[in-house]
Amino acid sequence: MPTHRPLPTPPRVGVRIIGTGSALPARVVTNDDIASIVQTTDEWIYQRTGIRQRHVCEQAKGEGNLDLCIRSLRTALESARLRADELDLIICGTISQDLRCPSTACMVAGALGAGRAAAWDLGAACSGFVYGLNVAHDLIRGGNYRRIGVIGADTVSALVDYTNRGTCILFGDAAGAVVLTATDDPTKGCLAQANHANGSAWPDLFMPGDEAMVTEEYDRASVRPMCLQMNGKAVFKFAVGTFQELIAETLEKAGLTADQVDLFVCHQSNARILEAARERFGIPPEKLYINIDRVGNTSAGSVPLCYDELVRAGRVREGMTVMFVAFGAGLTWTSSLWQM
Predict the structure, then answer these.
(1) How many CA atoms, within 13 angstroms, populate the side-chain half-sphere of residue 98?
(2) Who's near 150: CB < 8 A, 6+ residues apart?
(3) If we measure between CA atoms, which residue out of 266, 125, 277, 135 comes closest to residue 201?
(4) pTM for this structure?
(5) Measured between alpha carbons, how far apart are the two ends of the chain, in Å?
(6) Is the previous residue joined to 102 through a cis bond, with omega within 30 degrees of 0?
(7) What's the CA gap between 264 and 317, in Å, rounded?
(8) CA distance 262 to 337
(9) Of 73, 114, 241, 328, whose CB count within 10 A is highest?
């Protein structure tokens, strides 16, 4: 009989976020600009979404998904005081790659000089960064990786139909990145996480490649291929309910209450959704960061952009408890509760 050796016990290590960065395109598109294209008003958009403006890439000026990813991770590495070739892995959460192949993460690695670091893209739409954060954390805690760069980036402005008021008012372009490293302090890192998906609900938010992929819920004659389609009412209902359930699940896993969390860094999909969650858990306004009014919904770029802005404003300190939350197409939803 063969003798089965026991699996080695992974080292008990902690994980720290030691660098952050973000990037926004220069061009700002206001609600009034949108109103000049499709029938709407600044007041109508703001009341329903909380958005006043968004940043949009100009391809003629060399701006795009890859450009934002490179800029954000370069800044994160600078703040971490690391070289790119000191990374073991780069994960990029995105659904709006400039090229189908190779991965954006590989192109970022090449541009920054990351040597032979592993690199891959993670496609989970608005949940992409937090999914990637959880994967990177567990890879480091497992002992096979020591330093990982995680990017969240999307340029959804290139994927929306600007005659479709239901989607064109929502999205902007952005990227954010963090650098994670192993630490000898095992108390640092993720206290609890949740990663979920409901694949049967994919038609509520999707991007068809051609007319044949458009489901019966939509008017095929009005759908433009390779443009985002959304069942707004269904997505709003999903987000309101799931967002609050996700926070409750994560707190229960960690054995904490909402008042014990110092900061909630949440995907910026709609100000009304954020406000509903804040009211349910009694979260003070200063604990739930909001920037959707300035940047819109930036998909996978949303959470890391918020976190970088908080770090640079001096609002993240050693010992704080921070919860990252996101939900999006798939449908997907995910959380990551950290001891900083």
Answers:
(1) 17
(2) 90, 91, 92, 93, 129, 132, 133, 136, 177, 178, 179, 180, 304
(3) 125
(4) 0.91
(5) 48
(6) yes
(7) 14
(8) 11
(9) 73
* H or E segment to which residue 131 belongs: helix 128-141
The percent helix, strand, coil of the chain (3-state, each to 5) is 40, 25, 35
User: Residue 172 is which amino acid?
Assistant: G
- 154 and 305 in contact (C-beta within 8 Å)? no
Question: What is d(CA 53, CA 50) in angstroms, rounded to the nearest whole number?
Answer: 10
Q: Where are the alpha helices (DSSP H) in 227-313?
A: 232-254, 271-281, 292-295, 302-312
Q: How far is CA 21 from CA 129, 236, 274, 295, in A?
A: 13, 30, 24, 16
DSSP structure string for 305-338? HHHHHHHHTT---TT-EEEEEEEETTTEEEEEEE
Instruction: Report all structural domains of the chain as residue ranges with CATH numbers, in order of start.
Output: 14-183 (3.40.47.10), 189-339 (3.40.47.10)
Distance in angstroms (rounded) separating the CA atoms of residues 108 and 91: 10
User: How many of the other CB atoms lie within 10 Å of CB of 1?
Assistant: 3
Length of the chain in terms of residues written: 340
Give kind and range of the element (H or E) at residue 108.
helix 104-112
Give the Cα separation of 289 and 268 in Å (integer).
9
Report how far residue 294's alpha carbon sits from residue 24's, in angstroms, rounded to the nearest whole number. Answer: 11
**Which residues are catalytically annotated?**
126, 267, 297
Average confidence (pLDDT) per 10 residues, the chain, 340 residues: 56 91 97 94 94 94 94 98 98 93 96 96 95 97 95 92 85 97 95 92 67 62 65 78 91 95 95 89 94 96 98 96 93 95
The pLDDT assigned to 105 comes to: 98
Strands of the sheet containing 263-266, edge to edge, are: 189-197, 332-339, 321-328, 263-266
